[in-house]
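Two proteins were folded this term; both appear here.
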Amino acid sequence: MKKLRIGITIGLFHEAETLWNNGIKQNAVFLAEALKNCPNVESVVLVNTTHVAITKQLPWDLERWPTVTFDDAKDNVDVLIELGGQIDGNATDYLKRRGARLVSYCCGFEYVHAMESILFNKPSFGDNLFVNQRYDDIWMIPQVANISAPYFEVMRRQTAQVVPFIWSPIFLNARTASLPHSGEYQPKAGPRRLSVMEPNINVVKFCLYPAMIAEMAYRERPNDIELLQVTNAQHLATQCREFIALMNQLDIVRNHKAVFLGRFDTPTFLAEKTDIIVSHQWENPLNYFYLEVCWQGYPLVHNATLCTDLGYYYRDNNVCEGAQRVVEVIDQHDSQVAQYRDKQRALIARYLPNNAELVKGYTGLLDALVAKPLR
């Protein structure tokens, strides 16, 4: 069988755009790394769907991850995976006439985004909505399936299937290379700094429950907690009366043991400012942040159901159980730092682009894709 030439779409906003702060573009790179390991793949390129020029200013290795325009790719791909940039109806028609396959790779909470756009007057597509109904397949990462699969299937008129989640420490390692101890967790004597780093941009990852977990741990062990830091929350703490009123009910806030900060670079913040990460998710049970924290050996207290074996797991919305895991970290984590880090990395190996089962999964997906009749 002929090996496949694959393109993965991205959408560049400027010529020197970083990959670090953009999960979608990292996803495209990780997928490219995995597909290059598939025996039925000849080549993989990143395909920019915007009008931004592709130059040497791009801060990634263009030999390792070739990046081209759609015009340069359209006659040279057998499969186009639409991930970070959407093509229009004319481009779709062109690919179909050539016999190329088109896959929608879904790695965002599109149902949540659509719902919030409508309910809270946060326009995201407006009059420019284009729902492509000519995909040959819909691939979605596991954490978005529960809430968004029906949304994908009804709107795009195609069955959606869950595909393996992919992550690599390649960008994390590049970011931490210049940090002391490569940014890995180091034991610390005395009271601990707790941190909550939820994005606070929609309902799936919000800081309130982690702050409540920190509060319950503080009530039990006030002398063992130095500080609670809530990032991505400065605007809430200064502008939102409801948030301010809620936070002022907490002892850890009243006793001036909490600060509400802006946005930070994750690996630098981990290395310089914190000892324990406390997290909570609602329909977001697996993401890069968890893997970055655990790969670096930091204790992650979380309720993510797709990676219960990582970090220190608590169930559902059980803040008391979460607080007990925080206390457990305070009492035990520093006695097993190396073992914890090594265990986390061994567990995370299932998501790496060279994992044999993961590669086998994508090889099978591609075989099934090309065996389908064209839409």
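Next, the second protein.
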Amino acid sequence: MIQDIIDFFNLSLIKTKDINLTVGAVVALVVAFVLTSIVLKMIRRIVTRKLPSEDKNKFISIFQFIQYLVYLFVIMFTLNASGVNISVLLTASAAIFLGLGFALQQLFQDLISGILIILDQSLHVGDIIEIEDKVCRVEKISLRSTKAITRNQRVMVIPNHKFLSDILFNWTQNSTVIRESVSVGVAYGSDTALVKQVLIDCAKNNPSVLKTHEPLVIFDNFGDSSLDFELFFYVDDAFASPNVKSDLRFEIDKQFRANKISIPFPQRDLHLISKTIIE
């Protein structure tokens, strides 16, 4: 009886000079597939347990790609352990795998970077980021790339490996509130206390400036042609901050005119020395 079972498992389904696929190898392969599937499901549940629902769906799509690689290795290992000589298959496909490895190197970097972004929670949809001197809002994080919209409504498709290799400023990772500033120069001899008060009032009266954070005025420098001030204020929409700064400049110019505070233009004094030639 036992010998019959052994003979059955040793029965060859495919037999050539280099390959001998038996019933036992097929059974071992099926068992390995079932066990691997159970282990992968447990790993997926553990990893996605604390992820937000949006990131969880992204990770599942990435995890499916990882599953294909795992199943490939399971097939190779199981067949080799069952006595099937897979060296012939590996030798024949080695050149193909090597070429694909070089060709898909950038793709694998993007995929790994995408996984790290999701697990590390360093980037979310809606974040305001600055990369390569461009400010944009993240619209979609996919398996290979991230789509973002710039302030002039242009679409940026950013390969995910950029977030690991380049410097990235995430303006809203800690909070949606950011500090912005407007610089202005006034003429020498101006009432600096009045300038400070006018700048603060302009910030407080702007509806887009947060009332929960007090604006601040810094006397920045004695410039070549002006006394330089900088107005700091807080907003909760970093994407719209250029509009807020523009509105503040209009209002500052209006209030300066009303309070007779002049904004000078650059000036240079030229001293001409004449020489009288006596013959």
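The beta strands are 12-15, 20-22, 128-131, 134-141, 145-150, 155-159, 169-170, 178-186, 216-222, 227-235. The chain has a mean pLDDT of 78. These notes refer to the second protein only.
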